[in-house]
Amino acid sequence: MSGGLPKELNHRCRQVFLQCDEFKHYDALIAVFVTDELLPFKSEIRNANNRKQLVDFCLEDLLQKRIKSGKPVLEIFLATLKDKYEVGNALHDELAALYRDVHLAFTKIEVLSKQIQLSYQQFPDVLSFNLPGEELFAGRKQLIHEFLSLSKKTRIVAIIGIPGVGKTSLMKQVASQLELNHVFWYEFHPELASLNHILITLAQFIEKQIDNGDNLTFTFKSSELLDEQRIAIIIKNLNHHRYYLFFDSVHLIEKNSNIESFFSILKQKLTQSIIFISSRAKPCFCKPIDEAKKIIKVFHLDGLRDVDEIQDFFVRRSIQISSELARKIDKRFGGLPLALELIAVLFKEDFTEEHLLALAEDQVIEQLFDEIYERLTPNERKFLTIASMFYLPFSEENVVSAYRSIFFQDDGKIHLTKLKRQLLINVSVSNDYKVHESIRTLILRYTDEPSNLQIQLADFLVAQMQEEYHLLLEAILLYYRAKAFNKASTVVVDAIDAGLIPYHPNLAETFLSQFEEDMVSPDKWIWLLGSKGMLANFWRRYDEAEDFYQRMLHLAGELQDKVASALAFQILGAVYVQRNDEIAKKNYLNSLALKKELNDVKGQAEIYNNLGEIYTRQQQLPEAEFLLKQGLKLLEKINAPNWQKICLYANLAHLYAEQGNWQKAVNFTQTARQIAEEMRMIYKVGMLTYDLGVHEFKQGKYEIASKYYSESLEIAQTYKLWELEELVHVGLGKLHHKLGNYNKAIKHFQKVAEIEEEIDDKSKLTSTYFDIGTFYYEINDYQNAFGYYEKGIYLFEHLMDDKQIQVFLNNIYVFASKLETPQSILRPLKLLKKRLLVNAPSYALAKVYGTLGEIYLQLLNRNRVAIACMRQEIALLSQLDRKPEEINALINLGATYENLELYANVLDISEEAIKRAEAHNLNTLTAISYYNRGNCLTKMKMWEDAENDYQRALVLVENVKDTVQREAILHNFGEMYRRWGKLENSVKLLQLSLESVRQRNDVDSEITNLNNLGLAYRSLSQTQEALDCFNTALNLTHQYYRKCDESRICISLGNLYLLNNQPEQAKYYYHNTLVAARQIEDTDWEEGSILSLAAACKELGKFDDIADDFQAVAERAYNLGHHENCIKFLTFAGKINLEEKKPDSSADMFDKALSIALVLVYERIRQCGEQANISFLSQKLTEVLDSIGDSIEESVENNSVEYAVIMYQSLLEKLHSEHYWEESNYWIFDCLKPMGDWLNNWSLD
Q1: Is the pLDDT of residue 561 over 90?
Q2: Where is the NB-ARC domain (predicted)?
Q3: Nearest partner of 296 among 500, 186, 155, judged by Cα
C-alpha cells in the first residue's frame, strides 16, 4: 500500500498525471485547482524541479488529505481533472476509469478499517500528530542551520524555553527541511504520557520504513514482549537509517520514570538517528556529562531579537513596520513570538503604535490579550472559551457542535474563521485545531466557574462518543480538572469494560491511579475496585488483584449490590484455586447461589464439576449413522465383495458403541472379523479382535476384554504389526488404569511411547505423553505429570486427528482445574499458540483458543480475556469453513454471556448462530440456537418473541427426531406459557414433556416437569390436579434422595395450601423446605423457605415464633448481597411493622426496599440494553410498590387508617431526603400519589 492506496493504482495515477497539461509546472497546476477542497497544496510543491517531481509531490499531498465528510481529496481531484477534458478524449476516459477504481479502493479500505476497529476495539490514536507546515515562520535561520549540521555524535537536541517562545514552531520548521518520510513527530499531552503508546506509534512509523515491518505493530500490541525487548527492537531498526524523532512538550513527562528511562536508553544506544525535544526546563535525562561529550546539545531559546527578523515576522503577516518600531518592539517585548502574534492581530484592528508603547512592561502579554479580548463580541468570547477548554486537538465539528449545544448558538463556524485569522485558534493537524497553552490560561481568567463549563463540555463529549470514541480521553481530562470524580470514574470504568487495558494498560493505570476512595461515592468506588483488580490481574499481580476483589466483595455487601457480589465471588474463586481448593469451592458456591436468584442455572454443573465432560460427549451421531449406511448402500448397489465392507461394518460398530447399543456393536464387529478370517486378512483380524476387547471393556467386562487384548497382542507381535501392538498396549493400559493398577498402566503407555518414538510418529506420541502425564497426576505425582504434559504440548501441532486435538485439549482443561495454580499451564499453551500462529488458520489453533477461553473463564475468572479467546476460536473456525464447530462455538459463547447475565449480547450471538446454522441447513444446531434465545427472551419477559423461537425450535427437533432436545424445548416452552399466563397451552406442553421423560426413565426431568405442571394447574385453580403432581414429585424425591428437589416441591405445596387458606398445612411444608435446605446448605432455598414460613405464620398470627430466625436469615441475605431476597425480607418486615402499628419502622423498610429495587432496575438496563420490555426492567420496583399498596389496603381494612397515613407520609419524607430520588427519579412520587389520594379519601370518609 502507498498512502492507503494499492501500489498499482498509485502507479497508474502517476502515469496518467504525467500525461496531463496541468502538470507542466506549479503555476499551471495552481491556476486550475483553486477550490477550498484542493488548496492549499503543501509548500514544497512549489519547489518541484520537473514534471515528475511535481506529480510525486501532488499525489503524496492528495493522498494525505480528506475533506470534512471523510472523502479523500484525491477522488475530488480526479473528478475535477477529468472534467477538464472533453468526453471521448482518451485522457477523459482514462481519468474516469481511474476515478472509479480509486473510489472502490478507498471504499474497501474504509470498510476494512471499520471491521478492524470493531474486531479489536482498539483505543484510537489521538496522541501522535502529522506534521503541518509553518507558512508564517520567521527568523532563527542560523539556529536552524546549526540544527541541520549536527554531527552524528549528537543524539539528542534539547530546545528549552518559556511558554510562547516558539519551541514547537522552531521544531516544525526544522522538520519541514528534512527528508519527510524519515521524520517522526510525537506530542505529549497532560496526564496522557504512556510508554506503551510511544512504542506502538514508533512501531507504526518503522513499519512504513522497512519492507518486513508489516506485523511489527500487531506484535507489539498482541505479544507479551517486555518493554525492554520492545525498546531493543525499536533501537535496532532506528539504527539502520538516519531518522529524525521529534518529541514536543517533554516537560509533561516529568516524574514518568518509564519514559525518562526510555530517553536515557535512546541517548546511550542510538547510532544513526537523532532526537529533537522541546521542553520548558532541561529534562533529568540530559546530564552535564552528556553535554560535555556532545551526546546532547541544549539550546535555550530566546525571542526574535534581530530587527530584520522582527520586520520579516510582520511582513509574512502582511504588515509593514519601520525598523525603528521593530527596535522598540524588541526592547519592550523581547521578541517573544507569542507577543508578536498578538501585536499582529491588534495592528490589523485599530491598534496604533502609541497604544502599543503605552502598555506596561511587566504584564505585556496579559495586556495585549486583554486588548484583543475586548474587541471580541460576546459570542466570539464564548466560542473561544469553549475552544480553550479542550486539552487535546479538536476538530471543527467538535468545537462548533459543543458551542451550539452549550450556548444554543449557530454562528460557531463564523467565529472559528475569525479566531483562526487572528491566530487565537491555531491549526494543529489537518482539519484539527488547538489553542496555545498561554492563551488558554489567559482566557480562563475571564471565565466564571470554569469547572461548570468543563463539566458541560465533558458531558457533551461523552454523549458524542458513539460517533467519535476518542473524545473519551478529552472528557476524562475535563472531569478530572473540574473535580467531577464520580463522572470521571464512570467514563473510566466504561472505557476499561470496553477493552482499554489490553491495548493501553499504562493509560488505564494512569487513569485509575487518580482515584482514591474518598474522592468518589461508594457505588462508583465498587466498580473502580473491580477495574483496579482487572488491571492488577492483567499485570499478573495476583495478590494485589485478590485484595481489590475482596474489598469489592465487602463493599458490595454493604451496598447490597447483588451483581457486584456475584462477580466478586466468582473471581475470588479463581484466585483461591491457586491456594486452597476448599475456599475456592466455597466462593464458587456463594457466587452460584446468587446467580440462582438471578435465574442463572450454571451452579449445579459447577458443583459436580462435569459440564465440560458433558459438553465433549455431545456428538452428531445421527449424521454419522446416515453417512455410514449410505456408504454400505453404495457398495451393495455395485455388488462389491464383503471384504470391501469390513471398514464400514467396523465403523458402524463404533457408532453403535457410542450410542450404547452393544448388541449391534458386537454383531457388526464379529461379522467383520469373520470376513477378515475367511479372507486371511491377519491385520484386520487383529484389529477387529482389539475392537471386540474395547466393546467388552466399555461394558465393564474386564476379564473378557483382557482375553481379546491378549489375543490381539499375540497376533501383533507374531507378525510384527507395530501399529496393532501400539493399539493393544493402549487398551491394556486403559484397562489397568480402570482397575487401579497405575504402575502397570504407565508401563503399557511407556511401551506405546517407545514404538511411536522409534517410528517418529509425533502425532500419536503427543497423545501418549499426555496419557502418561494423566496417570502420574492421578497418583499425585505432579512433577512427572507436568513434565509429560509439557512434552505433549511441545509436539501438539503434529496432531492430525481432530478428535484427538479436542480430547487432548479438553483433558488439559481438566488437569488445569485440579492444579493449585492452574495458570502454570498457560505458559506452554501460549507458546503453543504462538507456534500455531505461524501456519494460521488451523483447527488446532482454533481449539487452543477455545481451551484458553475455558481456562480463563472457569478457572481464572478473567471473563473479558476468555471472551476474546472464544471469539478468536469462532473467527478461525469460520475461516476454515467448519460450520458445525463454528456454530457450536457461537452457542457456547452465548451460554457464557447468559451466565454473565449480558442478555443483549446473548440475543446478538444467538441471532448470528441462527443465521449461520440456517444458511447451512444444520437443523439441530438451528433448533438449539432458537431454544437458547427463547430461554433468554423468557427471562426478559419478551413473551411473543420467546413463543416464536420455541415454536421454530420444536418444529426443527421433531424433524430430526432429537428426543432429549424436544423434551427440553417442550418443558421450557410450557414454563414460558405459565409465566405469561397462557395456562392451557402451558399444561398441554408440560404434559407432553412429562410423557417423554417418563419413557426415558429420567427421574430428575420428571420431578422438574411435575413441579411446573403442578404450578400451571394451581394457576388454573385445579387444586386436586396440582396436588397430584406435587405429591408424585415429592415421592420421587424421597425415593431417589433428591434433597434439592425436595425443597422446591415443598415450597410449591406450601404455596398451594396457603393460597387455599390452609396456613397450617402450608407451614408444615415450608418447615420441611427449611429443613431440607439447611441439610444441603442451600442458602437460596433457606431464604425462600423462611420468607414463605413467615407468610404462613403471619396468617396464623404466630409470626413471633420465627421472628428471630427471620431476622437472622434476613441479615445474612443482606450481608451476602442477595438483593432480590433482601427486597422480599424488607417488604415483609414493612407489612409486619405496619400491622404492629410501627408506621415509621414500616416506612424505613419500604424505603430501603425501593432503593435496592432501583439498583436492580439499572442493573437490568445494563444487562439488556434497550431490547427488554419495561415490565421486565421494572419488575422488582413494581413488586415493592404493590407491597406498599397491599399494606395500606390491609391497614384500612383493619381500621388502622391513621397508621397507614403516618407510614405513607414518613415514606415520602424519607424519599424526598434522598438525592437520587429527589434529583434523578422523581417519578417515584407520581407512582405513590394514587395511594396517598386513596388514603385521603378514606380519611375524609
Answers
A1: no
A2: 143-282
A3: 155
Give dist(CA 1114, CA 1125) in Å, integer. 8
Residue 614 is predicted with a pLDDT of: 27
329 is written with which cell numbers?
518592539
CB atoms within 10 A of CB 703: 8
Q: How do residues 384-397 score in pLDDT, each as one tens digit?
A: 888 888 877 788 88
- Predicted pLDDT at 889: 93
pLDDT digits (tens, 9 = 90+) for 908-953: 999 999 999 999 999 999 999 999 999 999 988 899 999 999 999 9
| Region of residue 186 (left: phi > 0; alpha: psi -120 to 50; beta: else) | beta
Rounded distance, CA 1056 to CA 1052, Å? 6
Q: What is the pTM of this model?
A: 0.42
CB 508 within 8 A of CB 197: no
Residues 6+ away with beta carbon under 8 Å from 579: 820
Q: Residue 755: how many CA atoms within 13 Å on its side-chain side?
A: 21
What amino acid occupies position 1108?
Answer: D
Q: How far apart are CA 767 and CA 804, in angstroms?
A: 7
Cβ pair 1127, 1183 in contact under 8 A: yes
Which parts of 577-620 fold into alpha helices (H)? 581-597, 602-608, 611-616
Nearest to 1231 by CA among 1194, 1195, 1186, 1193: 1186
Residue 157 host element (H or E)? strand 156-160
pLDDT higher than 80, residue 55: yes
**For the chain, what is the mean pLDDT?**
80
pLDDT exceeds 70 at position 220: no
- Who contacts 865 (Cβ-Cβ below 8 Å, separation ≥6)? 502, 856
Q: What are phi and psi of 214, to 5 degrees?
A: -60, -35
User: Is the torsion defined by CA of 667, 668, 669, 674 positive or negative?
Assistant: positive
Alpha carbon distance 1162, 1154 (integer Å)? 13
> 613-646: b or e for each residue (b if 16 or more CB lie within 10 Å)?
eeebeeeeeeebeeebeeeeeeeeeeeeeeeebb
- The residue type at 1025: E
Residue 726 · residue 756 · CB < 8 Å:
yes
Q: How far apart are CA 947 and CA 1231, in angstroms?
A: 31
DSSP states along 836-884:
HHTT-S-HHHHHHHHHHHHIIIIIS--HHHHHHHHHHHHHHHHHTT-HH
Question: How many CA atoms lie less than 13 Å away from 22 in the CB half-sphere?
Answer: 21
Highest mean pLDDT among 503-507, 1179-1183, 1202-1206, 1222-1226: 1202-1206
- End-to-end, the C-alpha distance of the chain in Å comes to 86
**Number of Cβ atoms within 10 Å of the Cβ of 516:** 10
- The label of the residue with cell 525487548 reads 229
Centre a 10 Å sphere on the Cβ of residue 515 and count the other Cβ atoms it contains. Answer: 20
Residue with cell 533501537: 235
Mean pLDDT value across residues 792-799:
80
Per the CB < 8 A criterion, the answer to whether 261 and 199 are in contact is: no
| Nearest residue to 1016 via CA among 982, 1063, 993 | 982
Task: Kindly state the helix (H) or strand (E) to which residue 298 belongs, with its residue range.
Answer: strand 296-300
Cell numbers 502517476: residue: 14
Each residue's pLDDT tens digit, 295-305:
888 888 776 66
| Residue 528 DSSP one-character state | H
* Lowest-confidence region among 415-424, 437-446, 1062-1071, 1119-1128: 437-446
| β-strand partners of 297 | 157
Q: What is the pLDDT of residues 832-861, one digit of tens each?
A: 888 888 887 888 899 999 999 999 998 888
Give the Cα separation of 520 and 511 in Å (integer): 14
